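Batch 3, record 17
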Amino acid sequence: MSDLTPLRDLLDHHVVGHDEVKTALLLALITREHIYVEGPPGTAKTRLAEVAAKGSELDFFFYQLHRDTRLAELVGDIVLERRKVKTDDGEPGTAGEAERIHQRIEPGGLLTAEVAVLDDISRAPGEALNVLLRILNERRFGAEPIPLMAAIATGNPMDDEYYNEPLDPANLDRFALQLRVSGLIQSGVDEAKTLIDRFASGSVVEQPDPDPVTDRATLDALNQRMYQVEVGAAVRAALLDVLRTLVLEFECNETNSLLTDRTFLVKAIKILRGAALLAGRKAVDLQDLAALSWMTTFRVPPEAHEALPRIVGRVSRQIQAV
Amino acid sequence: MTSPVPDRRTAEFAAAFVELRTALGRVLIGQDDAATGLTLALLAEQHAYLEGPPGCGKSELAAALAALAGARTHTLVFHRDIRETDLLGDVLLSRHRHRGHERLRRELIPGPLLQAEIALLEDLPRSPGEALGPLLRILAERHALGQPLPLESAVATGPLEQVEAPIDPLEPGQLDRFAVQLRLTGLLTGGLFDEAAVLLERGAARQPPRSPARSAHALPAAIPPPRSAVMSTATRKAAQRAAAALQVEPRTIDAYHRLLDRLRQRSADESASGDRLMSDRSFSSAALRLVRAHAFLRGAPAAAPRDLGAIRYMVAHRLPEEVQEDFDHILEELLGDPPNVTMAETGAQMPGAQSQGDDSDGAAAASPASDSWIDDQADLPAPPTLFGKPPPPAQVDPLLRALVGRIERGRIDPDTDPGGQPRGYRPLRDLDELIDADVIEALLFAEGRLPGAPRTFERKRRSAGGAVAVLRDISASMAGRLTVWSSQVVLGILRVAARRRMRVGYVEFHHRALPHHVGGRLLHRSYSRLAEQAGQAKAVGQTNYEAPLRTALEGLRGGSGRNRHVVLLTDGLPIIGDTTVRRERQLARRLGVALHTVFLGNGDCPPVLDDISQETGGLRFHGRPLAGGGLRLEER
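Prediction for the assembled complex:
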């Protein structure tokens, strides 16, 4: 149980299934990390992001990226400023004035939002994304810090039929949490039945606007509490063992993986703390290491990602035995 | 020489830089070389280029250098759209009444970058080369708008050169502006797990960033707390002056000449490719400044031969990789002294320093005799034989150039694309394009004083489409040298495809076709996975053209677009399957796929290969192995 239970209930109320995405979304809000959700069209990716943002009463910015996306559409208006300056041009007979012309951006959109939903991020041209993703990474634009807590990006699978250019691996690394979802109906899980029943019963209003159930202050407090969650030596040792296994056994390296120090040595600690907090614990437990698989989705080769729960299990047993 | 009093001061200056070095080492665990290299760069007033995988701490290290050195700093994040005003400053439009006319003149007000003492240039290669030209020139000349710049060091960061990188790497000439070149590795991927454990422990002890009340605009935890400077500007400048004035001992100069000889020789042996550069600019003034700085940091009165160790921080893009790795060894052998550990001394408090020292010792002890062998070789009249050594990669260049030319035919001119790079001007068509418009003209336009529309960048981009499938004969006759050679061709094609974001397919064949699917597809963009595969081919079995061609064409059939190619690498006559591959030729013509054929070997080329290429508009090549181990390539 945690302070985010109402928000979780809200997500459950609005979207059937997708348990992992919901948890990861809450995790993103607590840890102030960005999240990338990839899945086929119509799997409630955008809806989940929207409900999470509106349910926590945060300034919300939604943008549908497209092939021609330009920076100005995301960050605000482009302004030409002119200021008079004195000149001392010594030339006689030239009464003159000079203007300093400056081009800047009047912040808007992503620069003023607390939660941003960037829909179909894989549709924007790779290089155009660079600036956007750098803003996400640094949480500042120029010298100005921005209030953004978490950006939720969605994308379609990078198969050829969607005609997307794959995201630059360095760009994907900006999203600490990465998930892959599949449609409930296509994968034939039990929730598919619930989903259909719900619509069949006629009790669903299409796209109802969720009422806020939590607020910025709650999220801020949670973020502060996150840093008090203890990360013991055993958990650190286990985390390192998992990483060591990925490098040595699964041969993750700089060419086939994004096993970066920033993500797996710095951000991973935050994610683990957030996971413990979400589960109502005051210290990170070995079972919280399961959250690592939300970090490896697109960062390591598929076989290594699939093996992660097994690796975590094995390492946890070894650590417990010691 | 210097008098005793300045000597004492000099020691103080040196101590400040040693402290800087130590503090830098604490900021980033396990990156001691980079910390030393950056310290030397600042002391020698040279520019530095840091490259490494994402998230290994490049930017953090550069920012820490600026903060610790107490210098006036400006950070510029490079991106595709970087503009002249971002780089140099604002535009000044002056209007003068002159005999009833108005005169407009545009000038430039130096921006913060031109006023910085340490300039941080992040993600430098993300900018198009054309935009970088003026900036790099300014960096080199340290003069702009007729004024000398206060700039001491520019520190640029960039991603690791990778097959998959969607950006074109900087040219060696551009990189040469950065005397110090450092390559960082990640702790995890570099296998430095002890250092990784230290970093985890630090993270676990990390406190919340700021008070919750301010957190709406507070910085996130990932940004390190501000550091205080370890030296004053006066100290920094005095140290730089003192270091630059340091004597270089004659025996050091002598050793330097011998070192350069040795490096040249080794580079020539290792690689025939011309993408490495030992320029006069870097290896005369910049190198000696660094050598002096090294001696200064050591507290030495003059630069001794051991200070040539500073050169190792220059070599990342100037020497072939094999030579870089061997640099410490080459130098040590030249000096005939125990290995140079001066920098480890200053970094003794750091957890990373220990292991690094051990490494270089181990490498040095491993092969003391092998380098003298190179000297002996140099005296021999005949070229060195290439037992077990791959032939120089340059030999595949003619083939690759021809293929690239064909692949690019019809689309050498990039298409207009709003997401592309600025490659010229055109009139503004849409107010949305104002961000790309010339500022002055945009202003006059807004005032209604411009007769036409303002100029705006015309953005263009090379079409990223297309696909190329490589069919590689791995039948028994392809053993040995031909395997190595065809691996190089495959790798070369992969590189070309990666740069253009073309999808690639790879089919090895003998009597059967062995396609390498990724994610169930023949064509994909997992370039590095294929590159790995191409290095592992083993030669077995007999030759069949039909199966691989069929496989490749089936794979290409689903796609669209004109730019589709198949490259067939073989050394033998087809024995199995339809040896005339009539149906495949027809299919290729129908699909508009160009089939290029490359025949390897001294025998006659099977006529069917000529037919395949001619009918589909493909290129035809014949590579003949030479007695010396090379291969002569000609168009059939």
